[in-house]
Amino acid sequence: MLADLLEFDFLRHTFITGVLIGLIGPLLGTFIVVRRLSLIADALSHVTLGGIAFGLFLEKKTAITFITPFYGGMGFSVLGAILIEKLRDIYKSYQEIGIPIILSSGVGLSVIFISLADGFNNDLFNYLFGSVSAVSLHDLYTIIGISIIVITMIILFYKELVTLSFDEEHARISAIHAKRIHFLFIILTALVIAATMRIVGVLLVSALMTLPVAAAMRLAKGFKQTLFLSVLFGEISVVLGLIFGFYFSIPPGGTIVMIAVAILLVAIMKNNLFSYQRKGVSSNE
Predict the structure, then answer these.
(1) Which end of the chain is more exposed for a tag (fewer CB within 10 A), N or C?
(2) Minimal CA–CA distance to 157: which of 128, 125, 123, 187?
(3) 100-135 as b/e, with b when 16 or more CB fall inside 10 Å?
(4) Domains of the chain by range and CATH?
(5) Is 106:50 a contact under the CB 8 Å cutoff?
């Protein structure tokens, strides 16, 4: 089945992209979940949708062709990340309020630009829910570049990100430049969301960044093990989702998410069963 999937160039592009997002999505998602910032992914995905609709509008109504929906979504995602940080500075006592503000703005912009671009079409549907044939060679190179940036930054600033994730107050009073690291973190999140939308779709991006992490947290015994299992579960979800999406002619995004949900349910049941067995052994003793 996998050999058939890799028979054509565009499918190979999709598969390579899937492997990359299966790595960087849960990898960065682990830090997002630990920091209790999961809603940031939702907010930025809705802003990304606004950028995609803006790109489609430019394609259909103007002569501007260099701002494609993909790059429009990426630009809006990064801009949304920057605005969230600005709002955190403005509302210092209510920093989480920036997330629903940006999310609502993203939804509003999406509705406006979708309407101006003559409503829903097949291209927009692919961006919403993913597609096995949507990744061009140019998109692949861009996603490879984003993946290299994300992995390099996580390796270089791993200790700082871990400190910021588990003890933000300590990070702020120490000499690790917590504000700069957080700004870098949210920009990386925006880039990962932009990279992931081609396969999973913007409406389901946050699921790939949180569901594998949630499953890993039920089984792992430490942070590094959580990182490893999150990436493993993410890769399994993406690869199987692409295969099923290709052979059953359905958008891969929904399939990827449902496989991730199935993995999460298995992890929860296994963890609960193990806890029940331990209680039983303790009672017998």
Answers:
(1) C
(2) 187
(3) eebbebbeebbeebbeebeeeeebbebbbbbbbebb
(4) 2-205 (1.10.3470.10)
(5) yes
Residue 128 has pLDDT above 60, yes or no: yes
The pLDDT assigned to 281 comes to 47
pTM summary value: 0.83
Centre a 10 Å sphere on the Cβ of residue 189 and count the other Cβ atoms it contains: 25
